[in-house]
Amino acid sequence: MSLLLIAKNRDMNPWKDALLKEDPNLDVEIWPRVENKERVTFAVSWKHPYNVLDGYPNLNVVHSLGAGVDHILNDEAIATPVKIGRMVIPSLKAQMAEYVLNAIQNYRFHTSRYVDQKREGFWSRHDQVPKENCTVGILGLGEIGEVAAESLLMNGYPVLGWSRSKKEMNGIQTFSENELNSFLSHTNILVCLLPLTKETRGILELDLFKQLKQPAFLINAARGGHLIEEDLIYALDTGVLTGACLDVFEEEPLPNHHLFWNRPKIMITPHVASITDPKEASALIVENYKRSLSGMKLKYEVDRENGY
């Protein structure tokens, strides 16, 4: 039996080295150079080419390199019996919490405006956005969302959380699926950390932005598919939103001609909020590989119906 590493435009050799260090007895192959497709039972993927995995007759598991699994669920060639695993490790949670906190601090202290002013040689002070105008609402209280919420609370921010099913968190007011409007009406800074599903695709749209408490700011570090891009532009132009920080996009890399590049109210980062470390991730991958060989349930196994 062998384990396959498959990703577009990414060097997977560091992943192979990390897995073999975790377990030297593994048989690890890197796509597209696969000696025997029939031996592959477990694939580790990040945005693999669609329909490629259809040629592996004994594939039992496709495991994501990251927390997101939409790139796997969207591949119709991966048959329903194939299990799907997602990446949940401490560093991914910590990185995301730090990214969100940094984005909020940059918003409050006008960091991007000062960077532009330095480039122009222009001296001008801007009032900080007070914390009382910075109630943070986190869309998605999963493994990563909970840690981000707790981090913000520890840094003195009022924090709200919304999830499909109601969660209980100390010091954080939480809302369930049918309480979205109430959640939005108390939120100044909206942070999207949702999984991308049929229900959440396009959730970041104009009508939702209009329900936010003013002044309102958007942070999307989940998936580009959550955002209706035209609605964001309109919301910024009409003052519904004062700004946005985006780490994810429908098309990545973001095309050079995209409207977002020329918008000073939009901070852009190239999908760097939370990056998987092969050395840390290899332990989970190896454990789930061995679980799959024994017919056991995976750690962080995805419910196909829910999409996470």
List the keywords.
308 residues, alpha/beta, Rossmann fold, 2 domains, 7-stranded parallel beta sheet, 9 helices, globular
Task: Map the helices and strands.
Blueprint: E1 2-7, H1 13-22, E2 28-30, E3 40-46, E4 61-64, H2 70-73, E5 83-85, H3 90-109, H4 111-120, E6 136-139, H5 143-154, E7 159-162, E8 173-175, H6 180-185, E9 189-192, H7 206-210, E10 217-220, H8 229-237, E11 243-246, E12 266-268, H9 278-293
Parallel strand pairs: 1-2, 1-3, 3-4, 4-5, 6-7, 6-9, 7-8, 9-10, 10-11, 11-12
Helix pairs in contact: 1-9, 3-5
**Number of helix segments?**
9
Structural classification: alpha/beta
Overall pLDDT confidence: 96
Largest sheet: 7 strands, parallel
Helix amount: 25-40%
Q: Stretches where pLDDT falls below 50 for ≥5 residues?
A: none
The CATH homologous superfamily of the largest domain: NAD(P)-binding Rossmann-like Domain
**CATH structural architecture of the largest domain:** 3-Layer(aba) Sandwich
Number of domains: 2
What is the succession of H and E elements?
Answer: EHEEEHEHHEHEEHEHEHEEH
Q: What does the radius of gyration come to?
A: 21 Å
The count of strands amounts to 12
Shape descriptor reads: globular
Taken as a percent bin, the fraction of beta residues is 15-25%
Q: Kindly report the spatial arrangement of strands forming the biggest sheet.
A: 8-7-6-9-10-11-12
- The CATH class of the largest domain is identified as Alpha Beta
Return the CATH topology of the largest domain: Rossmann fold
Distance between the termini: 27 Å
